[in-house]
Amino acid sequence: MGFGVYIIYFLILMAVPIWAQSRVKKAYAKYSEVANSTGLTGAQVARRILDENGLYNIDIQEVGGTLSDHYDPRGKVVRLSSGIYHGDSIAGTAVAAHEVGHAIQDANDYSPLRIRHAMVPVANIGSNFSYILILAGFFLHMANLTLIGVIFFAAAVLFQLVTLPVEFNASSRALDQIVNLGIVQNNEEKRARKVLNAAALTYVAAALVAVMELLRFVLMFVGINNDD
After folding, report:
1. How many domains does the chain have?
2. CA–CA separation, 163 vs 112, rounded Å?
3. Which residues are catalytic?
4. Where does the chain cross the membrane (predicted)?
5. Which of 8, 16, 31, 80 counts the highest number of beta carbons within 10 A?
6. Torsions phi, psi of 166, nearest 5?
């Protein structure tokens, strides 16, 4: 690649995640100001969906931070940030239901979720060491070292790709639950969907960036091989 192409490439790498994050922050901020019609807090929404699905053993805990919400499959705990845990907004309802969607996936032995959990150790190794191996191989002109780094990075990319169906499915389950249980009504479903779609964009952006980086590393490996 020429220098100009590299500049454009790195600008795209930076712009895509920033754009996705701005979308989710905008949607979250907007619908955090809109209360749901039932007056249920995020914690109450999560508890109701869990109980309706027979998941009485799943605990709900409050955690600090903003949008730090997640489901812990090992501890069987749905953790909600303070604003969502105590708030009754449309945004909070959507996020809480999404995290419970992961708990339902776990209970139903959803295959992509199982695959993602199994890939975590390899993905962590790939994320932490692949860059070091690839750059070392590039500067030392050691194609085999670069190839090992590319393989590790490919595992991290695969993890990102497997994450997509897991997140989209959790959002789909969340919408079905809050609509069927009457937690959202009328145009509230549309607003909740906007929050979930915006959040999904962050995962799409991350996967896109990861794939682009993998392609660049593959080209680096090919270049080293051609030089040998």
Report:
1. 1
2. 8
3. 99
4. 6-22, 118-139, 145-164, 200-224
5. 80
6. -65, -45
Helix or strand (DSSP H, E) at 124: helix 111-139
Site of tokens 């007056």: 39
With 0.90 as the threshold, say if the pTM is over it. Answer: no
Distance CA(76)–CA(47), nearest Å, equals 13
Q: At which residue do the structure tokens 């109980």 appear? A: 51
Going from the C-alpha of 217 to that of each of 102, 154, 211, the distances in angstroms are 33, 10, 10
Query: How many C-beta neighbours within 10 Å does residue 159 have?
Result: 21
pLDDT given for residue 108 in this prediction? 97
b/e code 52-91 from CB counts within 10 Å (16+ = b): ebebeebebeeeeeebebebbbeeebbbbbebbbebbbbb
Q: What is the DSSP string of 131-176?
A: HHHHHHHHHTT-HHHHHHHHHHHHHHHHHHHHHHHHHHHHHHHHHH
101: exposed, middle or buried (Cβ count in 10 Å: 0-12, 13-18, 19+): buried
130: domain range? 3-227
User: What is the mean pLDDT for each group of 10 consecutive residues in the chain (228 residues)?
Assistant: 69 85 91 94 98 97 92 96 96 97 97 93 86 86 88 93 96 96 93 94 92 87 69
